[in-house]
TrEMBL record:
Chain residue ranges for the region called Disordered: 1-26
Keyword DNA repair applies: no
Highest taxon in the source lineage: Bacteria
UniProt keyword annotation of Mitochondrion present: no
Name of this protein: DUF4190 domain-containing protein
C-alpha cells in the first residue's frame, strides 16, 4: 500500500437493496438493514481533498523550514524540510514546485552545515571572526 492509496466509500443504492431482497427471498430485517447501512471504513479517515490540502501544507512547510534552516538550526530543519517535501510529493501535492524547492533548500541546509563543519571543525558556528 502506498501513501496515495485512499479507501473509497461504497454505498448501496436503492437498486442494490432491491436486488439483494430479490436474491435473499425477502426484505431485510431491522438488524440486517442496520448492519448494511454502516459504512465499512472508519468515519475519521480524511477525505481525498483533505489529504490533498494536507499535502499542500507539507509542501509549504518544507519550503519555509528549508529557508529558515539556511540561517538557524540547519542540522534539524534541513532533514525536516527534506522529509516533508518527500511526503508532499508522494501524496501528489497541488504545489509540486514548492515541494521541490523545499527539498532543494533542505539539501542546501545540509550542504551549508557540512561546509561550516569543515571550516570550523565543529557543528556549532558563529558569525564573529
Amino acid at each position: 500500500m502506498t501513501l496515495t492509496d485512499f479507501p473509497r466509500r461504497v454505498t448501496a443504492t436503492d437498486s442494490d437493496a432491491d436486488a439483494g431482497s430479490r436474491v435473499g427471498g425477502g426484505a431485510a430485517t431491522g438488524a440486517e438493514a442496520a448492519v448494511a447501512s454502516v459504512p465499512a471504513e472508519d468515519a475519521g479517515a480524511p477525505a481525498p481533498r483533505a489529504a490533498g490540502r494536507e499535502a499542500d501544507g507539507l509542501a509549504v512547510a518544507s519550503f519555509v523550514l528549508g529557508l529558515l534552516g539556511l540561517l538557524v538550526f540547519n542540522i534539524l530543519l534541513g532533514p525536516a524540510a527534506i522529509v516533508m517535501a518527500l511526503l508532499a510529493l508522494a501524496r501528489r501535492t497541488g504545489r509540486p514546485g514548492r515541494a521541490r524547492l523545499g527539498l532543494a533548500l533542505g539539501v542546501a541546509d545540509l550542504a551549508v552545515l557540512a561546509a561550516l563543519v569543515a571550516a570550523n571543525g565543529t557543528v556549532s558556528w558563529n558569525l564573529g571572526g
